[in-house]
Amino acid sequence: DDEDNAPNGIFTVLTDCYSPTCTREQLCYSVLCPRRLEQARNSEWRKNHHRSTSRSSLLKEQEEERLWINTVDKKIYDSLSREEKKRQEHIYELFYTEKDFVDDLAYVKKYWIQPLTDSDIIHIDRRHDVIREIFWNINEVHEVNSRLSKAFKRRQDENPVIDQVGDILLEHVGRFQPFVKYGSHQIISKSAFESEKLNTPEFALFVKVTERLAQSRKLELNGYLTKPTTRLGRYNLLLREILKHTPKEHPDQEAIPKIMKIISEFLSSVNHETGRTENRFNLQMLNERLLNKQMSGMDLDLLAEHREIIMKGTLKKKGSGSESSDMHVFLLDHCLLITKQKFVQGAERYKLYGKPIPLAVLSICLPDQTKRSSTILPYGRPSTGSFTSAANGLEIPPLSSNKGGYPISFQHLGKQGAGPIALHATTFSSRRQWVEKIESQQQAMMEKQKVFDIVPVVDNFFNPFNRVHCAATFDNGKSILFGSDQGVYLKKEGKESDFIRILDMAKVSQIDILESSKLILVLSEKNLYTYSLETLLGHESGIKRGRKISKHVAFFSVGPILDKSDPEKHIQKMLVSFVRINAITSTISILEPYENMDAKKKNKHNISRLIRGSNEVLRSNKELYVFGEAFSIQYFKNIICVGCPKGFQMVDPNSAEVQSVLDPADERNQIIFERESMKPISMFRHHNGSILLCYNEFAFFIDKKGKRLRDDWAIHWEGSPTACVFRFPYVVAFNSTFIEVRHIDTGDLHQVIPGNNIRCL
C-alpha cells in the first residue's frame, strides 16, 4: 500500500530536451528546457537573461552580428566614405557566405557521405553506385570552394578593410567547372535519393535520424544538395552590388565584369547540360514505365542520343456526364504519345492510349474555333488556324471562362490512324502552348527535311462552281493550262493579269499538250478533242474549233515509245492512247501524230488531210483490249503498261499480246495476286534498271522479268494514295489529306505536306 501511495511522475530537470536542435553549448529557445539553467551558466547569454529568448529575436541578433560594421573598430568605420562602407558590407557578405557554403558541404561529407561509406546501411554491392548517384561530385565542389574560402580568409586577416577581391576571384573562378557537372546531375541525384528511401528501410531510418541532428539545422538533405547550384547563381548578385559601390578607377572595375562574364558562361553551361540530362533522364523513365510499346507499330527509339521530349503534361478526356480522366501526353521530337497513368504494385506506369502519332502525319484542330479552308498548307502557316485570325493575324482571346476545358482534337492522318482523339486543356493559355509547341516542332521537321517547296499559283480565282480538275504545263513550265468545270484557262509565268479562258466548255477532266505537234488534247464530258496550240493561244477572236476524236472516253495518256520500224536508231515516237470502258473489257485506242511517219507516208496522208480537213493531225494506229476496268496507262520502251483489276499488265502495241508485269512463277508475288484490295497506281523505272511498282497499299521493286527484288524491303504508305509521281530520287504519293514524299532507294519518309481535298492534277 505504501508503494501505491508513493509519488509518481517525471523529474524533468534530469531529462533531455525534446528539441532536436537543443545542445548544452547554446541556449535553447524553449523556456521549459531542462538544460536551461546549465546553458545559462555556461554561455554569455546569462548576462542578457532579462531579454526575450524567442527564436525571432535570436535570428535577429545573429543577423546583426554578421555585419561588417560589428567586426571593425569604430574609428576605422568612421574614416570611410558612405559608398566604401556599403562596398565593405557586400564584400563581407561574399566572404562569410562562402565560408557558410563550404561548412555546409563539409557537413554533408561528415554526417552523410562518410557514415554511408563506412556502414552497412546500403549493401556493399550497391553502396558505391548509390552514394555516387546521390552526391555525385560534391567533394570536387567542396575542394574548389575550400581553396577560395581560405583565400578570402587570408585577405581578411591582412586588413579589416578589404581593398580588392577581383584578383582572388580571377585566380579561382576558372576552376568552377565542377559546378557544371554537379548541377546537370541534380535531377538524377534527387530521383536516386527518393528511390533509395523508398526501397531501403535502413537508409530511410538513417535519413530520418540524421535530418533530426542539431548539426542539420532542421534542413533536409535535399536542401543541402541544392546549395552548389544556388551558390553559383548567387555570385553575380553579390559581385554586382560590390561593383556598384566600387570607385571608377579601382582595379575591381575591370576585374569584376570579367569574373561575372565567366560565371555567366558557367551558368549557361549548367542550364544547357541540365536540360540535356533532364531530357535523357525523362526519356529513360518513360522508356522504363511505358507498358505496351509493342503496340505502337513503330520504333520509338526513346534512348537515341538525338531523341528529345519537347513538352509533357496532363490533358483531360471527357467521359459520360461530368466524368473525365487524366491523359498524360508526351510531345517528342518525332511523335506524340497519349498515355494513361496506372500503378503496378505501387510503381507508376504509362499505358499507350492508341498508337503513337508521327508528327509528320499529325493534324490538330480546335473544335471551338473556325476551321481553315485552304487546300494545301504552306510552310510557316499553322495547321489549325485557331489562334490567328485570317483577316488580321491577331490572337483570338477566349470569350469567357470555359469550365469544361479547352478542346484539342488530335488526328492521325492516313490509314495507320484511328479516329480523332479530343482532349481538353484546363486553361486557354495551356492549350495555346500545346498548339504552338506542336506546330513549332512540325515546322522545324519540315524545314529540316524539306524536299519540295510549295509555290502558290492561284488562290481565289476558282470556286465550288468552277472547280479545277486537271492541269498541264508547256514552254518549259512557264505556262500552265487548267481544266475546270467551265473551260480551259491559261496562266503565264510572271503575268500579273488574271487567268485567260481560251476554251469555253463544260467539265474538262483532262488536258495534255503535244508541243512537237503543237496540239492540245482536251477531255470534256467524256469527249476527246484536239485543238491547235497556235490557234488557241492566238489573239484572233471568234470560235476556236477543234476536232472530236472520240466519245465515251474514260481517260487518255500521252507518252513516248521506241519505233520498231528502225530498231537500230532507237528513235522514239509519241503515242496518244485513250480508253473506253464497257462492262467486261477496256478498249485502248492508240493514235499517232502524223509527224511520226516517214516522209513518203507523210506526203501521202497530206493529200487525205486536205480532203478530210486540215485539223486532222492524229491517225489511228491500233486498238488493244484489256480485261476489266483500266486505271492507268504508262509507256516503257516498246510496250504499254496498263493498270487494271488484275494488276499491272504489259501490252505489246504490235502483237496486241497481254501478259502480267509480275512473274506468276515467283511465289513472292502471290500475295499481290490474292489481295483484291490492291489497286495498281503507277510504275517507275529506276536509273539502275529496276522497276518500282506502286500500289495503293505499298510499293516494291521488280526486275525486268517481273521477279521480286529486295525481299525484305517495301514502301508502306502512311495513307492510301490515289496517284504517284516520280522525280528522282523521290516518289511523291498523293492522298486526300496529305502528300508524302519518300526516297526511292530507302523508302524513308522525307516530307509530308498536309492539306484538305488534295488531288494530283
List keywords for this structure.
alpha+beta; PH-domain like; 5-stranded antiparallel β-sheet; 4-stranded antiparallel β-sheet; 32% helix; elongated; PH_domain; DH domain-containing protein
Molecular structure report:
It is built from 17 helices and 32 strands. With 761 residues, the protein is of the alpha+beta class. A hairpin with a 2-residue loop joins strand 21 and strand 22. Helix 4 packs antiparallel against helix 6, helix 7 runs parallel beside helix 13 (252-289) and helix 8 (177-184) runs parallel beside helix 13. The N and C termini lie far apart (113 Å). Mean pLDDT is 83; it is low at 44-63, 370-375, 378-395 and 605-615.
In short:
Residues 308-443 form the PH domain. The longest helix is centred in the middle third of the chain and has 38 residues, at 252-289. By secondary structure, the protein is α+β, with helices and mostly antiparallel strands.
Q: Strands, helices and their partners?
A:
Layout: H1 36-42, H2 55-65, H3 74-78, H4 82-118, H5 124-135, H6 138-158, H7 166-172, H8 177-184, H9 186-199, H10 201-211, H11 221-225, H12 227-244, H13 252-289, E1 309-318, E2 324-332, E3 335-344, E4 347-352, E5 357-358, E6 362-365, E7 406-412, E8 421-425, H14 428-449, E9 468-474, E10 479-484, E11 487-492, E12 500-503, E13 508-514, E14 519-524, E15 527-532, H15 533-537, E16 547-550, E17 555-562, E18 572-581, E19 585-593, H16 599-612, E20 618-627, E21 632-636, E22 639-644, E23 647-651, E24 658-660, H17 670-674, E25 680-685, E26 691-695, E27 698-702, E28 715-716, E29 723-727, E30 730-734, E31 738-743, E32 749-754
Antiparallel strand pairs: 1-2, 2-3, 3-4, 3-5, 6-7, 7-8, 9-10, 10-11, 11-12, 13-14, 14-15, 15-16, 17-18, 18-19, 19-20, 21-22, 22-23, 23-24, 25-26, 26-27, 27-28, 29-30, 30-31, 31-32
Pfam families: CNH, PH_5, RhoGEF
Domain CNH: 465-761
Keywords: Guanine-nucleotide releasing factor, Phosphoprotein
